[in-house]
Amino acid sequence: MHCPFCRNPDSRVVDSRTSDDGTSIRRRRQCTECGRRFTTTETASLSVVKRSGVLEPFRREKVIEGVRKAVRGRPVTDADLAGVAQAVEETIRATGASQIDANEIGLAVLPPLRELDEVAYLRFASVYNAFDSLDDFEAAIRALREDQAHAVDAEEER
Ligand SMILES: [Zn+2]
């Protein structure tokens, strides 16, 4: 990377820091020519394979866009959505893959969204899993209820 001030191609790293979410490294660099300092961010490449076969870089904003419709009218903030997108990125990066299918992102959205808002989760799951009957909704709601019951049991046992 060229120095942004003088275009010199050489710089030395004076400090490296991993971001809080662990997905990128920020390096403080000093130009060997003009001595000025600048910061670079290094992120492992992660591409999404769209249904058409086209590759595009993974972006959290796309995850948020995908979930936004499901949370409409629900008590969910932009910070909550950012949290879902972060969880999705962490889940995907934890697999070590550099390419993932778009539908794997949908799968990774389900657990954090469920944690956040059950109605939004049902809406998202209905589109993502292509629910086509009331039975599908009933099955999903039953699964939510059963998990809630287990959570209560677990608390009572403590
Ligand atoms: Zn320079």
UniProtKB/TrEMBL annotation:
Segments forming unnamed zinc fingers: 3-34
InterPro entries named among the record's database cross-references: ATP-cone_dom, NrdR-like_N, RNR_NrdR-like
Cofactor comment: Binds 1 zinc ion.
Any GO BP annotation: negative regulation of DNA-templated transcription
GO MF annotation list: ATP binding; DNA binding; zinc ion binding
Keyword Transit peptide attached: no
Residues annotated as domain ATP-cone: 46-136
A Pfam family the protein falls into: Zn_ribbon_NrdR
Residue stretches of biased makeup (Basic and acidic residues): 9-24
Keywords, alphabetical: ATP-binding, DNA-binding, Metal-binding, Nucleotide-binding, Repressor, Transcription, Transcription regulation, Zinc, Zinc-finger
Region annotated Disordered, chain positions: 1-24
NCBIfam families: transcriptional regulator NrdR (TIGR00244)
PANTHER family xref list: TRANSCRIPTIONAL REPRESSOR NRDR
Biological function: Negatively regulates transcription of bacterial ribonucleotide reductase nrd genes and operons by binding to NrdR-boxes.
Protein name (database record): Transcriptional repressor NrdR
Organism, as annotated: Agrococcus sediminis
